[in-house]
Amino acid sequence: MAKRPEKIPSKLNKFVVIGLGLIGASVAKAAREKNLAAEVIGLSRRSSTLELALENGVIDRAEKHLNHIAPELGSGDLVLIGVPTLAVPAVLKDCYKMLPESVTLTDVASVKGSIVESARNIYGNIPHQLVPGHPIAGSEKSGVDAALSNLFEGHRVILTPTEETARNHFDRVIALWEGVGAAVSCMDVTRHDEILAATSHLPHLLAFSLVDTLAARSDYQEIIKFAAGGFRDFTRIAASDPIMWRDIALANKTAILGILDDVMSDLNALRNAVRDANEAYLLDAFNQAQEARQRHEKQLKRHKVISGQTDSEYRYHVNPGGHARAELEIPGDKSISHRSVMLGSLANGLTEVTGFLEGEDSLATLRAFRDLGVIIEGPAQGRLAIHGVGLDGLKPASEPLRLGNSGTSIRLLSGILAGQKFDSILEGDASLLKRPMERIAEPLIKMGAAVSTSESMTPPISVTGGQQLNAIDYVMPVASAQVKSCILLAGLFAKGVTRIHEPSPTRDHTERMLRGFGYKVQTNGQTISLEGGAHLTASRVDVPGDISSAAFFMVAAAIMPESDIVMKNIGVNDTRFGIITILRQMGTRIDLSNCREMAGEPVADIRVRHDSLVGIDVPMEQVPLAIDEFPAIFIAASCATGVTRVTGASELRVKESDRISAMADGLNILGIRALPTDDGIEITGGKIGSGEVDSRGDHRVAMAFIIAALRSTGPIIVNDCENIATSFPNFAQLAGVIGLDIARGEIS
Ligand code: S3P
């Protein structure tokens, strides 16, 4: 795009809208209401439209022909072409004849390739002043009387500037759309047309076609009487303007034909599956679609397009106080949920899971195994039915496996995929892309795997399949259950006995669950070994409540006088027991009852009550046993008398965020003295004040600061809390149950 330095005045002089349909009239009305132009002029061939536009306050002035106003136009004026797609070339011809180069020209047509092409034909090249645009907003209603001045608020507008588009014209169009509340994205013309063919043009064609097919039946009147919500939802857009859609279908022919061919072949396969009663095909297709639709729903909700809106939407505002007296049901253990899907998929037979955590991390694992060809039913109220494919039954995924925020998914899956015959790529969100992967790549490569990471030893990870893995004897440099599990899972595919020595005990869910699936695993002190080449037999997994989630409410009870919190059915595996040991050492009353075993894991009901809290030096051997609970423990330390010191915890720096730094910064903002060290922190208990803290997108940091409000002297605002859903989707609701006054979004 040519660059021309010019300061763009935010207010337009004359804003001319040619064609007062829904979009043209709405943008005119919005520009007028927001005072974005000295004068808003509407052009239409129909007098009745112009009269209505004037009457409804859509425009300041009405004109029938461009030649009436063209002589008045120059720099600082903007002409927007709002006529149907196939009528744009005729308007462009008028513009070519009448408008000087200084006038900015844009359009709103849903297809961009044909517009750019006709501009090239008419002008002999693409004019510098042309900024092709397309607002992704609309309604099935049309015409000037449907105009809405807020139609674009929170919606995206795609601009497709070309090499020739001049900067000043481009900036002017951006200012217009941002002025009416839209968020502007830019992309290449062809890409725009492909994307719109898939997301907009195809659904419209399908809706038109379905209604058309049914309407042609002689019993249409009768069947329509029985149509329910599904029919209404699916066909709402078949009430759209036929002329507009005829134009779009013709103008975006190439991209529409491409996507229509794909859908027709999928429909044909679906038809065959129905004809042949192919249950597996149907279930797989519907599962994939359901899961994709759910993910897409979240994406739509999460990625509000207006910058700034995203932040405030995921900000929690928590008023001080609460009672911390309740019985709470804590969702399923994240670590065990991940492993249930992994081992269930690799086993022979049907594995049933209950209590599965429907958080984004464990769902990322579930999605990955579906992408690898495993049929998984659910989750429905924490239940899964996994149709295991055996150790050699995974199939290559057609796309990179996207593992979101989940370190456990990417590290454990790498071990499994290292032993496959096919290649894989594993990637994740911005936080995951920063996390260290050398710790798994190094032992996997020693086993003979072909695994590579980015230069900084972070994801994406690519695994080249078809390698013969050999067992190794490995001394782990870090105490990490993820590394241990990765190697053990690769060991399933290796020749010989894989042996791992841990520097100190870490969670042993993988070992326990492997045994539950009938696989022999030896544990001898801190050495764990297994021999490759056997098989896993499907089992049942009852996932207990997650002690790492319960920890936030244990700390709530620990810091709140007269508290009493009961949480039943919580996993109390020794390798996760650190939070209980540490809080007890600080003075908290914690009782365990109904201790039992569930699917190879120790489980208990936990009751936590307040007593005076004192600062302690956290014993180093407890660190790996409470590795995820430190953000919560730091809040307990802030409410304790004296100093709490944590050492030997440098692993906290490479979790979903640098938890030492994130917690120290937040605590200091809240008036607590927190001194970070290389491998830990020193916290002096005191009064938690009010303030705005940043969770850095880390779920556990966010939840810890929300709990702190129980004892704060004023409100705490916690930013960037979206990722709470990765491990504890109903956390805010349970926070409300213990009396926290918590609200999401912008509080004025
Ligand atoms: C996990 C192990 C821990 C923990 C993570 C889950 C697991 O990580 O922090 O949340 O499920 O194996 P490390 O083993 O890397 O410490």
* Cα-atom radius of gyration: 31 Å
Q: What is the percentage of strand-forming residues?
A: 15-25%
Give the bound compounds.
shikimate-3-phosphate
Q: Give the class-level CATH name of the largest domain.
A: Alpha Beta
Number of structural units classed as domains:
4
Please name the CATH topology of the largest domain. UDP-n-acetylglucosamine1-carboxyvinyl-transferase, Chain
Distance between the termini: 42 Å
Number of helices: 26
CATH superfamily of the largest domain: Enolpyruvate transferase domain
Assembly annotation: single chain
Provide the residue-averaged pLDDT: 93
Sheet of most strands: 6 strands, parallel
Q: What is the fold's blueprint, element by element?
A:
Blueprint lengths: L11 E7 L3 H12 L3 E7 L3 H9 L5 E3 L2 H4 L8 E4 L6 H11 L5 E4 L5 H11 L6 E2 L1 E3 L20 E4 L7 H13 L3 E4 L2 H27 L4 H6 L3 H7 L6 H10 L1 H23 L3 H24 L6 H5 L2 E4 L5 E4 L5 H13 L1 E7 L5 H12 L3 E6 L2 E7 L11 E2 L4 H12 L5 E4 L10 H9 L3 E3 L8 E4 L8 E3 L5 H11 L5 E5 L7 H8 L5 E3 L2 E5 L8 E3 L4 H13 L4 E8 L6 H9 L2 E10 L2 E9 L20 H9 L4 E4 L12 H11 L3 E5 L2 E5 L6 E4 L4 H10 L7 E4 L4 H4 L3 H7 L3 E4 L4
Helix pairs in contact: 4-5, 7-11, 14-15, 14-19, 15-16, 16-18, 17-18, 20-22, 20-24, 21-22, 22-23, 22-24
